[in-house]
## 1
Amino acid sequence: MANPKRELPPKEAQTFRNLLKNYEQRQYKKGLKLAEGILKNHPDHGETLAMKGLFLNNLEKKEEGYEYVKKGLLKDLSSHICWHVYGLLYRADKNYEEAAKCYANALKFNKNDFNILRDYAILQTQMRNYDALVDTRTKLLEAKPQTPSFWLGLAIAYQLVNKPENGIKVLNNQAETNMSAATNDFERSELLMYHNMLLEETGDFESALNHLNEIEPKVTDKKAWKEKNALFLEKLGRKEEAEKAYRILISENPHNIAYVNALLSLKDKNETSSLLAELFTQYPRSKAIEHLILQHAEGDSFKIKVEASLQNGLRKGIPSLFASMKRYYADAEKKRIIEELVAGYLVSLENNGTFGPDAIKEPPTALLWTLYYVAKQHDFHKENEKALEVINKAIAHTPTVVELYMTKGRVLKHAGKVEEASKIMNEAREMDLQDRFINSKCAKYLLRAGHTDEAERVLGLFTRKDVAPVQDLTDMQCQWFMTEEGNAFLRKKEYGKALKRFHSLEKFYLDYFDDQFDFHSYCLRKLTLRSYVSALRWEDKLKTHPFYLKAAKGAVEAYLALADKSKEADEFESADMTEADKKKARNKARKAALKAQQDAEAKKIQIKEEAAKQKHDKKLVDTDPEGETYLNTEKPLEDALQFVKPLELLAPSNVEVHALGFEIYIRQAKYLLAVKSLSKIAKVDKSSTQFKAKLDRLEAAVKAQADLDPKVKQAIDLELAEIKKA
């Protein structure tokens, strides 16, 4: 039933419709003025109050905006506009869960509102609520079947719930309507290739290939077309045609190792060497083909081929030669051959200046780069003393090559001499002050040695001059710096600062996730559908990145240290204090808590003042440089768990992730979850050094817990028995 207070006189009703248009056209000041005009005569009109709040929010008056929206909602709880506006505020704050609740409430009162359904679909995609997305996209299509983007949106929704065959039906039903959305050749091509992507995902490669051949004249992305053509031919076992297709791709890009590997997979093993030799004759500059030749060669054949690669690299002075060769050291025979060759080169170059007895004279730099290679080889084998001896010899030969000092610093780091390593790396930096890479390397080594202030100063040589180096690195989302400085603070037990860095990196990943929001509608308009679906799938696995894993590990270690520190303090107090002392301590704690609260209030005021100043000066100021917000947490274990939870799903085979989870759960006395973490570690690597110690700790903790629920105890015992049996 409609709210009688919602009805406005005709003049004000028209004004209200105008202010809705003002919002759509982003004319916020004009809309605010119209809203205030309506509220003069109708101060309790809920929808106008809500719209006023929305305009204020968009004019950077967030608190006032929320206040008006809530006021409007209380005046008219059954208004879909009020609920929609409330959802828009939450969405602007990236609070997607609350926004979704508001949209759901809005749809209760107007289940077919086009704008709410559209916004709800975008939100469901962002939250990965794909099953509900199919329903919302279906309703949108029913509301406006003539809109091509709604057909495409439904097709994508079906693809995201792993029902590409339904997506194909949707595309086939309105092929002409969908094609009308394409305004140029590129968009038509993308739409056709997306259709082909759905056919591929059904596993029907025959249909996918036939469709690919049909659309060839209209496809502008020729490279993608050729790749799919070759792939489908390979999947269908049409080897001769697939070979021809892959040869065309290799001719266009002989450096793409995936193409060459795909071609090799079509041949018998005994044909591999001859095929690679043929390809290398055609494309002698292809490092991909050269690598595969060495990978597949054996014995004398490998020796002949690797000798040519080594001599060429040492003659030209390629610093990355060892990095490209060390992959072959996994094979004992290949490792022996390479090491014997290089050792022979070193002796011959020192004595005769040649690579061998009958060889031509080499330039003096050949000896330098051979010494460099040998030093890196010793470092790889953890032979630190030998590595240092050889690299010092190289530096004595040519003391002006930056790479030599960098390698010496690396050897010292591996030997555990981080202070010396940082000094050598600084020497290297001073040899070329214009090189950003060596500057960053030097800063990294300074952080490893604990010199955080000096590292920030060094990095500041290449950051913007109008902001502090750390702020600029944060703005640039520099992940290596956040993990390295966070760990540097962690080693110094400066947990607040460490957590500040780790949380900064976590925010980068939140930003990456939030950044996709606008693309949910943009990609449907621009028809970049293949890239869009790939991006969504990439985002879902983003937190498996090594930098996030490092930050999560560091953050959990810091929070565990805070939790243990707090527990030790509590145990010490309860063990060594009399009742009178405890009373004094409680009074002292109350006073400290009151002072902390007063300080917090004062800090809030200071932060507001700083924020206002920042807005005026447009210069960012760090209001919590010590990370006290994180240091003073009352729930360190729960905070630590926020880092681990997504990783338990995304990195199920990572032992470290489950080890971190175990450490949190056992401290929370959640023994069933702890034993499950232990079970996951056992499945991946039961021989892990951490496993036995953790198993003993868990059994001891469970045994000591006298009041444990018998059902939980039984479940733990069963899980432990399974672990031991496996």
Note: Residues 55 and 102 are 18 Å apart (CA to CA).
## 2
Amino acid sequence: MATLSPMSARPRPFRLEARAIDWRLVALLLAYPFAFKLAHMAASPWGGAHFFSLWYPAAGVRLALLWRIGARYTPVLIVEECVIQLLTGTIVSDGPEFLNQLGGVARAPAAYGLMIALVRFIERRSRSELAIAPMPFGLAAVLAPTLVSFTAGFWEWLWPGVSGTLPSQPIATTIAAFLVGDLLGVLLVAPPLLWIGTRREEARRLMQIGRGRAVEAAAVFVFAWLLAWGLARVEPQIAVTPVLIGAIWVGLRCGRLGAWIAIILSAAIILPWSAPLSASATRFALHMGLAAMAIATYLAGSFAEAQIRAREDIARRDRILFQAERLKTLRAMSVAIIHEISQPLSTLAIETRHLSALSRDPQPDPAEMRESIELVDRKAALLADMVRRLRSFGGRAVDEPSPIIVGQMLRDCAGMVGGEARSLGCAISLPPMDARLQVTGHEIELTQILLNLLRNAMLAAPGSTIEIALESRADQVTIHVANPVPSPSPDYGGMGIGLLVARAIADAHGGTLSRDIAQGRARASLSLPRTEPSHD
């Protein structure tokens, strides 16, 4: 029989680990059944045969809460909705349709929770545009009502109720009515509920609508409603069509907030108009048009914001990529730079010892001391200049766009790779340059392009002369970096990630970067817009 060691036989102390209670979550769950019932009752004026309402705000309350707290609380919401409907008499516990009614209440939050869980799963796993916020919520706002409406339609088709007294309606009508009611409830109510308590950064992004865009969108929306008013006097069923187009434009230009404002303004016009209508077909058509407009508008606003976020992410990744490529170039230059620094340091050490010896001489030679001091000053300035170049090139910050003298930038680049060029046996040939020739841009990024081109040329042709040529036109400056290649010349098909980074930087500056091989020479050409020098 196995025996326990004294250590293993020692009883473990019992600890009760108390978790902090999320009182905000508790308050939301306690308030939910009352908010749900009030929203449920507010929808009664738009009721009809075999469907509760063509505008169902309770669905928006449900979706907002499940999206905020998570689909795992779906069973809690199912219990709460069933209890509140029992307590208020919507479900009769001793009636013949009790089980059917109880299932009808439970299936809606169950379908919402299932769809929210699925959308959240897609958001975590997918890399497509649909996973970029705020598109996931837009998908859930459309797909959850769709799932619950089809579930309700087929539920009534398979199990219409034990009493058989429910009016006979086509299943398509039931599904469409349920879908319209839930969609309008979700898209009108859920967004503002979720915007309450949003983070400052999210609120700032939501409110970031330019004045020009807002005026343009408002003008288009008002014009669309004027067309709708004219159509409503002839054919009310198609009156919402121009509003659909105008509201989509608002969503694309102003994001989710603009989309929701367009939706709520349209609902404020259509819902009071449709409530007293006796013709169910007309009211149904108006609500279907409003639902279609709400879906398209909110998804358009969500897509517009998702595109902005995607562009911001791409720009941020480009900056990281630029910095990584810059550090890669800096690392490759480090050995040569160390060699460049060691020579001035040796000279400084020698000259300082010489000055020390002169200072001990009773009658020092002033000319000799002045010559040594000037040499020390030149070498110290050279070291300071090298350190400045390295700090600016390897630093994380990106400089602001400014006028750049092309000749000075080329001389700086040639100086930075001078040590590496000597170690590879290369010589860099600089052309005569006009001091007035300049471009506007980020000096660090343009320096990065030129360093990449020079290093690629030296690595491709060690022991040769790398020629830099400068070509200027009225509105453009082109820098050529050429090196010899073996004959026949192989086409390397680019320069890897360095070429991609260089081309991205050139594009961002309104220029181009090209590469060609002809007559035994490879040439990379960087073209940039020319800037006229200031005469201040």
Note: Confidence is low (pLDDT under 50) at residues 1-18, 162-168, 490-495.
## 3
Amino acid sequence: MGTSAEAAEPHFSFTPSFIALTDSATPGTTTFYPNGWLPLGAHVVDGATHKTRVYFGFDIGGVPRARLRSAQLRVIDMGATDCSKPRALEGRPVADFTTANSWNRPPASAGSTVTPVAEAPGCEAVINFDLTAGLDKALQRQQRRLYVEIKVPGGKENELAYGRYLDQNNFHLNVELTNTAPRTPTKLTYDGDTDCFAATYYAGTDFTVRADQSDPDAGDALRTEIEYWPLSDPAATTPIQTFQGSGGDGVFGFGTIQIGGLAEAAYGWHARTYDQRAYSAWSAACTFVVDRTVPNTPGVSSTDYPENPPAPTGEVGHPGTFTFTANGSDDVVEFLYGTSPFSLFQRVAADHPGGSATVQWTPRATGVQTLYVASLDRAHLRSPARAYKINVRSYGVNAYPTGQAPDPAGTRAAVVTMHFETQAGNGLTRFAYSIDGGAQQFAPVGADGVTDVQTAPLGFGEHTLTYAGQDSAGTSHYDPITTTFYVLDAPAITSDGVYPIDGTGGGVGVEGVFTVTPYVAADVQDVQYFTTSDSNHRTVTVDADGKARVHWTPTEPGWTYFWFAVRYTDGTVSSWQSFAVTVNG
């Protein structure tokens, strides 16, 4: 797992920031930044003999002297006047070259003369001057620029056969530093914050791995290599593309492990650092698991609130203890729960992977309630939600009239059907009630929690009902409730069909008849009515059959509202009955 270090570029490769050419034919002047190939030694130009030397200046700031290993001036020798002659060139560091320098006033020597070494045989070749000692002295003197002189040496400088040319603009001072291998990467994490040495689980989402880098050699360009493999086959490594970053802890390398195509299995990964010359050791292996198996639906139980109980238990506001289990899934680490399968916002950790958890949960409503619970495994896969139905006890009682019937004895009264209801099976056994502050009465609670009671005849008008539920010991769990209800004696109205009740019919000038039947026959004197078109109260006598007939002929089309009541012999008036009709236009 890993390869040897590949060939690296120099630590520094400087191109000259300064070039000058001096010529014996113009001994008092200097050509700065000359164009074309640079001639060295003796040459004939336009019948005149010239002897030339070349000077380079390299800005060497930033080179750490303590790590200096070598410095090579690399140029390309393009050839000589006579290639049968051996190459004759030399270089040496010199003092700063200024505008005062020329052929007649060359800069002073600043180091030893060096002879170049060719990279290949022949008259034309890349050649290197070893300027390590000269650069070291320049750095020791804290120079910002290293000046180098290149020339044909000694008496050969006067011989035309030894004249040479350097390639135009192809000059480099390549500096190599001593190198120490990077340190082994540290702080290996998943997604920037999860320690990788604890097994981590993923289902289908790619994730980022990261490793911090460091190198004893300050300034080296570092690169992280990361690879992963199935634990069952450590030789089957897969490298990933990496990138470099920096933060509060320094520099780090990171990359994405794409798990879309990986089989469900356990995997390892590690990292090493490369500084362009040497590799660090591989880090210890981290592990992760690809898991796409959804956990089982969890188990749920509670002694306080059993599932689907035969009778309600507990009470609103009373917490119960609920136990969640992994139901055979050994990688469940958490349970989610709530009152909707789409809002499982409450969470509790399992006591161990595949274990259980106990929570206190308080119902907020009576009757059948559902607690939804889902399991979450280490790969963040969620199980289907378990619907756990409970029935929360309520001692609440409700009562209201559902109907009335005239007193069979014919008095001006009615028998009212009173409906009582409570939650079935809640432990209440009877309803206790009284009407208008009278004696308390009792009615047994039906198996479905419902009981209907017929009252004694009640006079028409407003009445009060006070009621409560009681258990077998006669205890009421809530204070009695008092409410009002009405016994009404409004008459019944029928139509002969010309003008249907709350309907449309007839027409202007067309008579219709409404029949008014009093709720009770006793003590009826007559019937009164008025309309929206005629607010004057009109009186209609009662026929021998105890009913009154109202003949009505509209004078305009549209909507009309009627009110009818019975007047008794004592002058009192019954409840009013109303309806509307619409006359055809």
Note: The CA atoms of residues 433 and 441 lie 5 Å apart.
